[in-house]
Amino acid sequence: MSFFDYLVKHGMPWVPKAIVSRVASRYVAGESIDDAVRTLHQMNREGAMGTVDVLGEEVRERAKTERAVSQYLDLLDRIETEGLNANISIKPTMLGLKIDEDLCADNVSTVVDRAAELGSFVRIDMEDHTCTDATLRLYRRIHEAHPIAVGVVLQSYLHRTTADVADLLPLNPNIRMCKGIYREPRAIAWEDFETIRANFIYNMEKLLAEGAYVGIATHDPHLVWAGMAAVDRLQIDRDRYEFQMLLGVDSELRSIILSAGHRLRVYVPYGRDWYPYSMRRLRENPTIAHHVVRAMLAR
Ligand SMILES: Cc1cc2nc3c(=O)[nH]c(=O)nc-3n(C[C@H](O)[C@H](O)[C@H](O)COP(=O)(O)OP(=O)(O)OC[C@H]3O[C@@H](n4cnc5c(N)ncnc54)[C@H](O)[C@@H]3O)c2cc1C
């Protein structure tokens, strides 16, 4: 990352919201369910599957969690009626994790019950380290009733991930493995790029070798190659893993993975609450300054 990119990355909170919106629009399908459906049809036509996230997090009011549940129920029905090859991803703090764990579990159960009825699937995203234990508890609770219809996420930047993999393996889990996007303290998270990669590969291989379903979520070509090599070496069936990428990131890599014969799922977020998600995506964009300056000049 150039010095200029570094400056913009650390100055992002001061970039006007209108500019953030313009630059980040590639990462978000739009504000409405119709926008998400349009993007999913496009992904399906390209041969990719989808997972849809209704944007929103850190909700502190019960009424808002109820609204989120009904948005997800509508979304599941819409996916079904449109015949889309897609499932959903949820954020526990949008469904009440920071209000009350039982409330969150009830909300998530309602969504997963409906997904299971429809033969669909719910991925519980992993948020920052203040949520890790509660999210894994939530996953175990829901998994008891619906062992096939729910999965969770582990982050290779966390020291604890190898232990979490060992704890979850007896459940025959469905795990999305990613590096992790939140800023975490050094005491609990690796900072070195190569160590995070090594931890990703170690845990991905462990999960694959021991029978878990693995979502290999990365745009890092080194890890994509490691994933391809691992499924080949371990002779993992095509329906026991998938690659996953975010909307708006490296469509060329998407084609490379698909044309090599692997399944690939694109994470498609939509909704009005786009700002925190967009800021995280912009911060990890390696050429962020270029995009921000171009958007400012285009005003
Ligand atoms: C499907 C999916 C779901 C995810 N779910 C979670 C989750 O639940 N919890 C969580 O903490 N994290 C999640 N993440 C984010 C993940 O943890 C990483 O922060 C993110 O994927 C970047 O890591 P990377 O492996 O792609 O490697 P990086 O080294 O960050 O990126 C590799 C290359 O990808 C390109 N790239 C990456 N990001 C961008 C961008 N924003 N814009 C343009 N180019 C980019 C660049 O060329 C970069 O060099 C998810 C990621 C994916 C793909």
Q: Care to describe what's here?
A:
There is one protein chain. 49% of the residues lie in helices and 14% in strands. By secondary structure, the protein is of the alpha/beta class. It folds into 2 domains: 1-28 and 274-299, no CATH class; 31-272, TIM Barrel. Strands 1-2-3-4-5-6-7-8 form an 8-stranded parallel beta barrel, surrounded by 8 helices. Helix 6 links the parallel strand 3 (122-124) and strand 4. Helix 1 crosses helix 12 (288-297). The radius of gyration is 19 Å and the shape is globular. Residues 125-126, 153, 155, 178-182, 217-220, 223, 244-246, 249-250, 267, 281, 284-286 line the site of flavin-adenine dinucleotide (FAD).
Please tally the β strands and state the result.
Answer: 8
CATH architecture of the largest domain: Alpha-Beta Barrel
Structural class: alpha/beta
What ligand molecules are bound, each kind once? flavin-adenine dinucleotide
> Helical percent range?
40-55%
Read across the widest sheet, the strand sequence of neighbours is 1-2-3-4-5-6-7-8
User: How many angstroms does the end-to-end distance come to?
Assistant: 25 Å
Number of helices: 12
Supply the CATH class of the largest domain. Answer: Alpha Beta
Q: What is the total domain count?
A: 2
Give average pLDDT, whole number. Answer: 94
Question: Do you know the CATH topology of the largest domain?
Answer: TIM Barrel
From the alpha carbons, calculate the radius of gyration and give it in angstroms: 19 Å
Strand content: 5-15%
